[in-house]
Amino acid sequence: MNAEEAIRLSEKVLEEERHTPTVHYMLRQPVVSTAAPAALAYRDRGQHPRTVQPTPGAHQFSSENYGLRVGFFSELDESGRARFIAALCCHIVGAGAYRVTKGDVLGTGSWRRTTSELPLIAEFLIRQGHCKELLSALPMAPLRPGLTMLLMQLEEIIAFDFTLLQDSDYATLRELLPSLLVRIDQLRQETRVSDVTESNIRYYLVEEAPPICEGLIEMCRKAMFLRLRESRNSDVNTEIETDRDRVGSFLRRLSFSNVLIASLEQAERSYQAATNRFEYKECMSHLRSFLENIHKEACVLVHRKRGGVLPTNWGKVIAYLAQEAVLTKSEEEFITALYRLISDVGVHSLVAEREHARLMRNINIEYGLLFLTRLDKWMATP
Q1: How many domains does the chain have?
Q2: Do 12 and 161 share a structural domain?
């Protein structure tokens, strides 16, 4: 599918979303009590700021039309995807990205009487790693009911899963919102228009949007704190830190190369400094290189003692170490599967998830300690 076709089909989906919205969050599992935090989260709708759920996962995003758009997007090359994203951003900066539902004309412009495709676009851009494009378009969004719906969806996203945005995204959003408040205040002070429909659209926007913006500023602050707390709670693990130091000591004592030691240190620095999925991919690349080369260099040490043909490629290196009883058969299967997994989720893919990076970083350290302890004993055996 080419970009033009994907955009044409996407426009049909967005038009349908404008008339019949499909975007919503729902509980993953029923709750015993309506007083449970997960259930109370729904009562926050319409309140500002929304409560940012400290443990995401209780609520699941759902949208039939989201899946359709992901399908179009997945069939495009890099250039086509850029054009697809640009076409979505045009809806944000366009004035017609909303529809007024039937009812009294006096309610025209209220979010309760508005449907829009912008919530779906916001979810798509954020979940597909294009939050920066969304935030770049936000300052150019016209002051229309569609903007109110977009801001409310940002509330929804942050409230139910604050991990979808990075710290840099939250910082950018916090910087943009005060300027948006100024624009809305300027609209408030403009001379009233004679058209009843337009007058009501402006009335509801200047009444409804400012509390949302102010609430979002506080939600961004809270989300950044929760991200910090989550990072420290998951990363500051004294046992992992101690074992990483032990791995380094083993590598130096067994005369592994300095570059291998440095690669583990670089993987750790990359992991700690990463703020987005592209940077976690860099960390995963270092972790795979470390995993591969620790076995290759161990193979050289074993070969000096046992001789034979020195293997150089990954599969033969692992087989040689198993043959010489440095690895058990089960460990050979495990490390082969681990190498394949880290390649699939962190190297061959365009981006890597933080959860995968954390898992692989911790496994590399603990497996490295086990492997080096085994190798040290093997080398000491006559």
Answers
A1: 2
A2: yes
